[in-house]
Amino acid sequence: MSNQPAYIIPKDTRIGHVHLKVADLQRSLDFYCGILGFELTTNYGEEAAFISAGGYHHHIGLNVWYSKNAPPAPRNGVGLFHTAILYPTRKDLAAILQRLLEANYPLTGASDHGVSEALYLNDPDKNGVELYWDRPKEQWPQKPDGSLEMYTKPLDLANLLQELV
């Protein structure tokens, strides 16, 4: 056993991007760019594409290198549970909800977690996607001992859409 202190990751560390194996590149671009509004930054031939929000080099990579025309991963297997996409404001989350409703794109859930509000759906390959916004830190619920009081309650979608009025 070492006498060195435990390593703690730097506080400003972020998840930079996610890279997904998909069965059909164009179908995935239609979802991530066409519905969710990401921008295509570059293609690698016909087998990979990189997309972003706001001009970053890429937030999501999509490829068919090992998965072209493959079926979705089994629900009860190991792997990615979901990719979480953080929106800057509650109004932005309301706007993407409105867009999903107009596209008739199905949600798999909608939750208030106390610290955040989230919409859940699957991409065309059945990869889970969470679209969410964080409440300001000073509004996060706390337990009596000061730790976070996270929970899962139904999200009032009608109330969320009121952000757009």
Give an account of the 3D structure.
This protein is an alpha+beta fold and 165 residues long. The chain folds into two domains: 16-69, 2,3-Dihydroxybiphenyl 1,2-Dioxygenase, domain 1; 82-165, 2,3-Dihydroxybiphenyl 1,2-Dioxygenase, domain 1, CATH 3.10.180. 18% of the residues lie in helices and 27% in strands. It has helices spanning 25-35, 90-102, 157-161; strands spanning 18-21, 39-44, 48-52, 60-63, 82-86, 109-112, 116-122, 128-134, 153-154. The strands form two sheets. Strands 5-8-7-6-9 form a five-stranded mixed β-sheet, covered by helices on one side. A four-stranded mixed β-sheet has the order 1-4-3-2, covered by helices on one side. A hairpin with a 3-residue loop joins strand 6 (109-112) and strand 7 (116-122). The longest helix has 13 residues, at 90-102. The chain starts with 17 loop residues before the first strand and ends with a helix.
List the helices and strands and how they pair.
Elements: E1 18-21, H1 25-35, E2 39-44, E3 48-52, E4 60-63, E5 82-86, H2 90-102, E6 109-112, E7 116-122, E8 128-134, E9 153-154, H3 157-161
Parallel strand pairs: 1-4, 5-8
Antiparallel strand pairs: 2-3, 3-4, 6-7, 6-9, 7-8
Keywords:
globular, about 25% strand, 2 domains, single chain, 2,3-Dihydroxybiphenyl 1,2-Dioxygenase, domain 1, four-stranded mixed sheet, about 20% helix, five-stranded mixed sheet, alpha+beta
Low-confidence stretches: none
Q: How big is the Rg?
A: 18 Å
Specify the structural class.
alpha+beta
Q: What's the mean pLDDT score?
A: 95
What fold name goes in the CATH topology slot of the largest domain?
2,3-Dihydroxybiphenyl 1,2-Dioxygenase, domain 1
CATH H-level superfamily of the largest domain: 2,3-Dihydroxybiphenyl 1,2-Dioxygenase, domain 1
Total domains: 2
Helix count, DSSP H or I runs of 4 or more residues? 3
What is the string of SSEs from the N terminus onward? EHEEEEHEEEEH
